[in-house]
Design brief:
This protein is α/β, with parallel strands linked by helices. The chain has 7 helices and 9 strands; from the N terminus they run βββαβαββααβαβαβα. The chain has a domain at 2-161: Alpha-Beta Barrel (TIM Barrel). The chain has a 9-stranded mixed β-sheet with strand order 3-1-2-4-5-6-7-8-9. The model has no long low-confidence stretch (mean pLDDT 95).
Length: 231
């Protein structure tokens, strides 16, 4: 499968923030988010074709790591993602799958489904990317796929928020799922690739989380390393 990068770092987002983890980033995505922070794995997929065995061997090269994060791009479109997850699970790793949840899990080995459905704020520019905008808007929200993840796995929601109105939108999306969604399982992250923007948005987003009962989710990797690859 096409792999953009594999690296050992600190989980910067979600319920496992701070946990040392090996990140396996697949290359390729079925969406085109305007603010994507990994365009090299999404907008312009790059990388190296790797076998499952070679990926597992590289993960095992970090002997202190017990957590593996399968991410992208969109890892669920990688053809061998399920054999890879199964092999890692058999070896005793905790597996997080970071996905936009546009595709069902179909039995993938996973301990934590990190579900990040995309909001209207993610749509690419319609003038410059008309075809992708239509595809993105038609694909970004798949309630049936989200329900399949919720029914089969431990999960968390991570929403990228750039304005207060985004929260009204995501509340409508969650209400349509016909599932009990505890608010502490919904993490709201400021849309930002710089410390300055993240901290600015943290001010009002943190207050909004307090008033509505959601979890504020900072992006620790940006604080620690800045917006750069391999972190």
């Amino acid at each position: 499968m096409l792999i953009s990068e594999i690296f050992y770092s600190i989980q910067g987002e979600g319920e496992l923030t701070g946990v040392p983890s090996v990140f396996v980033r697949t290359s390729g995505c079925n969406l085109r988010c305007a603010w994507c922070d990994t365009p090299y794995a999404s907008w312009n997929p790059e990388g190296e074709q790797r076998t499952v065995d070679s990926i597992v061997a590289e993960v095992q090269g970090h002997p202190t790591a017990r957590h593996v994060v399968l991410t992208g791009g969109e890892p669920m479109i990688a053809k061998e993602i399920r054999p890879l997850a199964s092999e890692l699970k058999m070896l005793g790793y905790h597996i997080t799958v970071e996905t936009a949840a546009t595709l069902p899990p179909d039995g993938i080995a996973c301990d934590l489904a990190s579900l990040s459905p995309k909001l209207l704020n993610s749509a690419p520019d319609g003038t410059r990317h008309a075809t992708w905008r239509k595809k993105h808007e038609a694909t970004r929200w798949r309630p049936d796929a989200v329900q399949a993840w919720l029914d089969g796995y431990g999960w968390q929601f991570k929403f990228v928020v750039s304005a207060p109105a985004d929260v009204d939108e995501l509340e409508g999306m969650l209400a349509s799922l016909d599932r009990e969604i505890p608010r502490h399982k919904v993490l709201l992250m400021p849309e930002a690739t710089s410390l300055e923007t993240m901290r600015e948005r943290a001010n009002w987003l943190g207050e909004l989380c307090k008033s509505r009962g959601y979890r504020y989710a900072h992006r620790l990797h940006i604080e620690l390393y800045g917006n750069r690859r391999g972190t």
